[in-house]
Structures are given as C-alpha cells and as structure tokens.
C-alpha cells in the first residue's frame, strides 16, 4: 500500500473472545528499530478487525484506532526520528500476533510483512539541479 493510505488490519481464526497482543515493527534506512503494540480481544466469532475493535489499555495506545499500530511506532533509541530519504524503496512493516496480554509476549500465533511504498506505479522521480536550485520533480 502507499504510505499515506489507510491500512486495514484484521486477524481471523482466533478463539472466541481470545486475548491477543498485536505488534508492528519496522527498521528505518539506518537500521534503527521502531515498534508499537496493542492489546485486543477477539469477537465472539474469533475475528479481530481493528476498524471495529478498540485497543485495550496497556499497549502503545488504547481505544478505537484502526491505524494506531502505525502512528504509534516509537524508536528503540531515544529521540530518534523516522525519516525516509529514499522514496523509491518501501518501508517493510512487520506485523505479529501474540497470545495473551502482559509485559512479555506469549506464543507467536501469526506474522506478516507488508510494504508501505511512497511512489505509485508509473511515477517518475527527476532530480532538478539548476544554478542554486536543488529539487525533485515527480511525474506525472
């Protein structure tokens, strides 16, 4: 998906009202790790849809925040900022589902990797160097 588009996150196949912890992580271009986690409880049918299920207290955020696992990403190194210099390569987002809640995650139940791209297919990046002007033109 594109970096500025909403990402729908859902988990299927859980037990009825099963408690799980979801964690996202990514590494920036320098290799620094950013992570966020949230506690959830599956619905009666064993499904968890972040658009309908509020995060429970105890994680990086709480409440109904479908994109919370992305906006709450925090660096492991204090005062580090997530910066993207090469917009031609995507960020690789790791998504993990762990059993239960608590300080230490339980058993890993599922994991996935998702690419968050910055350029739509067909967009061309053209560096501009004219006198003292330095810019980048994106076409179309």
Automatic annotation (TrEMBL):
Domain Acyl-CoA thioester hydrolase/bile acid-CoA amino acid N-acetyltransferase residues, every copy: 4-130
One example of a Gene Ontology biological process annotation: acyl-CoA metabolic process
Domain of life: Eukaryota
GO molecular function, one term: fatty acyl-CoA hydrolase activity
InterPro entries according to UniProt: Thio_Ohase/aa_AcTrfase, Thio_Ohase/BAAT_N
Family: Belongs to the C/M/P thioester hydrolase family.
Protein's recorded name: ACOT5 thioesterase
């Amino acid at each position: 998906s594109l970096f500025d588009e909403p990402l729908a996150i859902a988990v299927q196949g859980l037990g009825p009202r099963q408690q799980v912890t979801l964690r996202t992580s990514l590494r920036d271009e320098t290799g620094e790790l950013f992570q966020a986690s949230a506690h959830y409880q599956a619905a009666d049918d064993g499904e968890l849809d972040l658009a309908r299920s509020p995060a429970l207290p105890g994680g990086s955020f709480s409440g109904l925040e479908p994109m919370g696992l992305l906006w709450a990403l925090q660096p492991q190194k204090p005062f580090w900022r997530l910066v993207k210099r090469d917009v031609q390569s995507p960020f690789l987002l790791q998504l993990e589902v762990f059993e239960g809640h608590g300080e230490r995650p339980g058993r890993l139940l599922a994991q996935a990797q998702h690419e968050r791209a910055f350029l739509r297919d067909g967009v061309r990046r053209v560096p501009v160097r004219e006198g003292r002007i330095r810019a980048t033109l994106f076409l179309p």
